[in-house]
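Hi C.,

You asked whether I'd gotten around to modeling the 216-residue construct. I have! Everything is below, sequence then structure, no commentary in between.
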Amino acid sequence: MRTPIWLFDLDNTLHNASAHIFPHINSAMTAYIERHLRVDTAEANRLRMHYWQRYGATLLGLIRHHGTDPAHFLAETHRFDRLHDMLVFDRALRHRLRQLPGRKIVFSNGPGAYARAVLNLMGVERCFDDVFAVEEMGLQPKPQTAAFRRLLIAHRLDPRRCVLVEDSLENLHAAKRLGMKTVWISRTAGRPHYVDMQLGSVLQLPRKATRLGLSR
């Protein structure tokens, strides 16, 4: 295998989104549904979860059943007054990413403006060749095959040269079916067969990358 192309998820892979950012987004989505569908909080929260479980993204259910404008939804639900105060990440990230050979692309189900803002605040935006966000996926998020196909076509990539670094097992499973190498960022016990490597932190990747059988 030649020098790899690294595909990095953003939330809970490059930074800890569960601490502050995900709760904020979930609340913003519930509030958005309340306002635009004119339902109470309990029903809005039920719809948010229902559509996420059924379609893989709340937005897809809102588009299909309520004609929601995707650009407006993404902008309103990813609005942060003090994003820098909500970010939880390791300051060594930029140094570790620079140690990793090969092209690097952020492959995120979040909107592009949000992803770029996070990368900028973490000081790692120059480490990546591109941000491939949900808009570029045609609003068909991971783990849908269409999301991966759009990325591969847009960047003319051979999946056998790609390594997906993710916290989501569903996304890793989809990547493996396409022939990619997979790295699971998780401290959970029990590595599935479709995961080539499990790491507790993305910071370990440069030191462990050779175990994937990759060439420099």
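If it helps when you're writing up: The first helix runs from residue 21 to 37.

Thanks,
B.
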